[in-house]
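Discussion board: Methods & Data

I've been asked by a reviewer to show the raw model output for two of the constructs in my manuscript, not just the figures. I'm not sure how much to include, so I'm pasting the format here to get opinions. Each protein appears as its amino acid sequence followed by a line of discrete structure tokens. Is this the kind of thing reviewers expect to see in a supplement, or should I convert it first? Here is construct A:
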Amino acid sequence: MILYDASVFINHARDQKLDCSAHILDLTYYEVGNALWKQVTKLKILDSAGAAATIELLKDWENVLQLRASDLQGIFGSATELNISFYDATYVFYAKKHGFELHTCDKVLYEKAKNVVKTEFVRC
């Protein structure tokens, strides 16, 4: 099973290269939404229709893992141990917890996570 981080989702949603059986985290909604907002309003590299299409795909995604309060200490431990953001550590933590392979376009996250959980670097 696969867990996509937000970088994979945002970079591959429009080219339809996503495996619909893969999992995402509920925080992916916020990360993707913020990235789309930035691409439309600040960077001007995406129009509103393109953003809307990605949001439709995101809202219909079936395999969404919910962040649990009982996991916060473990996530924080992963963040401090790997010296990565709490956001990134959340993906590593849940990939490890569920035995998922983590897919990311983030080279730094890939380098940190590959020693903890099976990780694939996805070209974006």
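Construct B, same format:
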Amino acid sequence: MVSVLENESCQAVFEKMQKYGISQIPVSSENGDFIGSVEENVLYRKLMSQGCSLESSVKEVMSEPYPIVGFAESIENISKRINEKNSACLVMDMGGNWHIITKQDIIQAISMDA
């Protein structure tokens, strides 16, 4: 999973978003805790309103962290956590690797069941 550190620049976030074709990214502290998130639409809005610059640190523009869900949680329970406030959830797999679950992932999972 792609993430950024709280002290990285908005430029670094933008570059990672472009490189990996993503629009949202979790923010972690130096000790690895997830402490926030940055979404493309929020970053854009803050850049356009001069609320920040590309040199600003991530902690100046980050939003709340994404909720963490359990590996065995059902699609129904996870989908309830993804809403206007949270566009994604984080989950750790059985191997200890973190993953992000987005609206697109939920739609894909539902369509595979159909």
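Answer (T.O., handling editor elsewhere):
This is acceptable in a supplement if you add a one-line summary per construct. For B, something like: The chain has a mean pLDDT of 92.
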